[in-house]
Amino acid sequence: MMAGSMAGIGEHCVMYPFDCVKTRMQSMQPSPHAAYKSIPDALFKMVRYEGLFRPMRGMSAVMTGAGPAHAMYYSCYEKLKEMFTADAEPGHHVLAHGAAGCFSTLLHDAVMNPVEVIKQRMQMFNSPFKRCRECLLYVYNVEGPRAFYRSYTTQLTMNVPYQSLHFMMYEYMQDLTNADRHYNPKAHMMSGAIAGAFAAAATTPLDVCKTLLNTQEKTTLQRTKQTQIRGLVHAVQVVYQLRGLRGYFRGLQPRVLFQMPATAIAWSVYEFFKFFLSNRHNHISAKEKVMEKYPPSITSKTSPVNMVSDFQSSTKAAVTVAAATNP
């Protein structure tokens, strides 16, 4: 769980500015001051007109939620993967990996959905919120607690296929690049990057709808004469009404560029901590077994190590005495 927690925090924090750009570029009715031509253009304008740390606003909410969410996510995945492939023959187990990813997503999204609502509202252009607590209280008091899970079904609809594709591709790439499944940083990084890019591109339309549900953009509501965007079906209709088919792929480039290094970082950190903690656990277990075999009361006198040490001391003493008596 610690490995998963560290992986989640590292993934989201390092790539957070790109996530902020993606959210803005998915806007259905962007302000003229927030119409960006590319990712560098978006980052440049955000820093120049809104402040150096503007792309980082809302990151504290992600840091709070990503730790426990990813801890449950990875630990559940590893356990289910082990269960689903326990009696299977060696080889590719695509369906087992996909199913483990599906169930893991249910736990992950239950924690991360409220975080996504706060984060994306703070990322939008001209957001009135400066602190996460301020945004949290506003949403809770004005829209009610259900607002934090308004996009939960959409999130699951997106993340279940996303995580299934992600884990299936990662495990497949591991079979190609790291068949022995040893700790291999290059293989973990490359497999994670390819898996993240593939899954992100395939699920971008659902991510656009999720962003619309989370942000409830005022300009979009005014344009469509709606008081609220309710549910996935309604979001799909609004996106098509305003932007046509191309609207479902708004923010595709920043989403893929965000997910590639993010998943590479996540898997690299996760596999490193899993390797480190596993080795540490094995070392401690081996030490405990030695102590069980040679308890302290016995170890001090009859353990192999101390017996050799005593023999060496006796030998040195004998040699010294012999040298003294035979000059």
Automatic annotation (TrEMBL):
Predominant cellular place of this UniProt entry's protein: mitochondrion
One GO cellular component term: mitochondrial inner membrane
Keyword Transmembrane belongs to the record: yes
Lineage: superkingdom: Eukaryota
GO biological process, one term: iron import into the mitochondrion
Source organism phylogeny: Eukaryota, Metazoa, Ecdysozoa, Arthropoda, Myriapoda
UniProt GO molecular function: ferrous iron transmembrane transporter activity
Placement of Solcar repeats on the sequence: 1-83, 92-176, 183-276
Compartments, record wording: Mitochondrion inner membrane
Membrane topology category: Multi-pass membrane protein
InterPro entries: MCP_dom_sf (IPR023395), MCP_transmembrane (IPR018108)
Key words of the record: Ion transport, Iron, Iron transport, Membrane, Mitochondrion, Mitochondrion inner membrane, Transmembrane, Transmembrane helix, Transport
One family name in Pfam for this protein: Mito_carr
Protein name: Mitoferrin
Source organism (scientific name): Strigamia maritima (European centipede)
Keyword Transmembrane: yes
UniProt family annotation: Belongs to the mitochondrial carrier (TC 2.A.29) family.
Gene3D superfamilies: Mitochondrial carrier domain (1.50.40.10)
